[in-house]
Amino acid sequence: MVVRQMVVDAVLLEGRSVRDVARSFGVSKSFVARMVQRFRAEGPSGLEPRSRAHRSDPRRSSPELEDRVLAWRKRLIDFGADAGAVTIHSHLSEELDPAPSVSTIHRILVRRGFVTPQPKKRPRSSFIRFEADQPNEMWQSDVTEWHLADGSLVEILTFLDDHSRLLVALRATRRVNGPFVVSTFLAATERHGTPASVLTDNGAVYNAISRRGRTAFESLLSDLGVTYKHSRPYHPQTQGKTERWHQTLKRYLAKHPARSLAALQRHLDAFVTYYNEVRPHRATGRRPPITRYRAREKAVPQGTARQHHRVRHDVIDSRGAVSLRYKGKMLHLGVGYRHRGERVILHIVDERVRVLSESYTLIGQATLNPAQGYQPVKRVE
């Protein structure tokens, strides 16, 4: 701005030529002449910098198309689904031929102020990704909490196919427990087949590693030959797919408040259909998960049933029994009234239990039956 005023003063007040002034200030003659012309026509305001952008762009999208893009965005947001350029493009492709490209839709959203730049966000190119090669090669499972309209807390259990991102199971209950996990998993296998492996966190409903035991879910997977995997403690990144899925799910549920578990389950079922069969997924080549799930041969369990070994140190209670959890159920082993108060060692191999004294003398043995709460111990005399 200062240089502009100085070149104008040199020409108009000092009477110097345009060529001389341009040479002295190291600018072009056309620049000097343009500044003088603006000053004479508009005064000092004419020296203000001006945009060089075109007054109109023949390649810019029409207002009608921009309104159509924004209408789809609002429709998706009201539904509680993703409303990014990829999703909008997928829906517009069914209405327009040809449909605007994803980059065009993104520019429209930016121009209308619906995209906030995130320059500090970690670039996707830096991610280290893992993905199963086949459908049913690995299912991920996790539990998340949600509040009903009355404020009561419920839990939602998810089983997600790692390769295709297909939701194979999504159920809500007041409190997820071991039997609920087992029944949900079995219902999913009836519809989609048995996976080769399952990945979960270390929740007590999944495994009993911290208790040095085995849950009903672990026993079921072992019986089916399914490889069981679990993340290390305090490392949710291992299950990044389900963690990210929960964000998508809760954005939808926030738009569809439910007053009861039954209503919540109806919303979940509706969203599963949309998510699996309609919504394009960035991680699956912008295709719905069901398309990718059906595109390749499914993996099957390769393992065989594995024996479960553990050793327990316990004390016979006042009733002559000792408690033991087996396949998610608490059982009571009747060792005998005369042994009350004694310290014993339990050697457990699957359903077979041997009860020994601290001196390693065999007291008795039993075969566990989870259908019975009381398990008689056959004593050795």
Brief account:
This protein is of the alpha+beta class and 381 residues long. Helices cover 34% and strands 20% of the residues.
Secondary structure blueprint with pairings:
Blueprint: H1 2-12, H2 18-25, H3 29-42, H4 63-79, H5 85-92, H6 102-111, E1 139-147, E2 153-161, E3 167-173, H7 178-192, E4 197-200, H8 216-224, E5 227-230, H9 240-254, H10 261-277, H11 289-293, E6 309-315, E7 321-326, E8 329-334, E9 343-349, E10 352-357, E11 362-367, E12 374-376, E13 378-379
Parallel strand pairs: 1-4, 4-5, 8-12
Antiparallel strand pairs: 1-2, 2-3, 6-9, 7-8, 9-10, 10-11, 11-13
Structural commentary:
The model has no long low-confidence stretch (mean pLDDT 83). Helix 1 packs antiparallel against helix 2, helix 1 crosses helix 3 and helix 2 packs across helix 3. With 381 residues, the chain is α+β, with helices and mostly antiparallel strands.
Shape type: elongated
What is the terminal separation in angstroms? 108 Å
**Main beta sheet, described?**
5 strands, mixed
Write down the Rg.
Answer: 35 Å
SSE string, helices as H and strands as E: HHHHHHEEEHEHEHHHEEEEEEEE
- Taken as a percent bin, the fraction of beta residues is 15-25%
Please bin the fraction of helical residues: 25-40%
How many distinct helices?
11
Question: How would you state the average pLDDT, rounded?
Answer: 83
Question: How many strands in all?
Answer: 13
